[in-house]
Amino acid sequence: MTRVLLLAALLFAPMQWANAVDAPASNFDTAMKAMLEKSRDAKQGLVFYIDGHEIPGLVKEVLADAVVVANQTHGRIVIRLSEINAVAAN
Predict the structure, then answer these.
(1) pLDDT at 11 over 60
(2) At 4, is the secondary structure helix, strand, or coil?
(3) Is the pLDDT of residue 7 over 70?
(4) What is the mean pLDDT of the chain?
(5) Which of 43, 67, 47, 42 is nearest to 57 (CA)?
C-alpha cells in the first residue's frame, strides 16, 4: 500500500507543479497583451526584450500569437509573443 501511495505521489506531483508554473505565465501574457493594445491605441512606443536584445518599436497590430511592430530601421517586424522576455514603456 505504501508503494502505491508513493507511486501516486510521484505521478501527480509533476502535474501540480506544472499548473503552478503556468499560472504566472498567463498573468504575464495578460499584462503584456494589455500593454501591447494600449501602445497600439495610444501610438506610444515600447521596447521589447528578446534573448538579451532590445527592439524598440511602435505596435501596429496585435495578432493571436505575434505582434507587428515598426521602428526607424524597419517598417515591419513580426515578433512571436512566446519569445518576448519583457516589455518596457515610458
Answers:
(1) no
(2) helix
(3) no
(4) 82
(5) 47
Fold of the domain built from segment(s) 2-88? SH3 type barrels. (2.30.30)
- Domain residue spans of the chain: 2-88
**φ/ψ of residue 86, rounded to 5:** -160, 160
pLDDT of 40 above 90: yes
Report which DSSP code applies to 82: G
Say whether 61 sits in a helix, a strand or coil. strand
* C-alpha to C-alpha distance for 37 and 68, rounded to whole angstroms: 11
Which carries the bigger pLDDT value, residue 18 or residue 26?
Answer: 26
Q: What is the pLDDT of residue 55?
A: 96
CA distances from 67 to 8, 19, 45, 64 (A): 42, 26, 13, 8
Give every CB contact of residue 81 below 8 A, 6+ residues apart in sequence: 29, 32, 33, 65, 66, 67
The answer to whether 78 touches 66, Cβ cutoff 8 Å, is yes
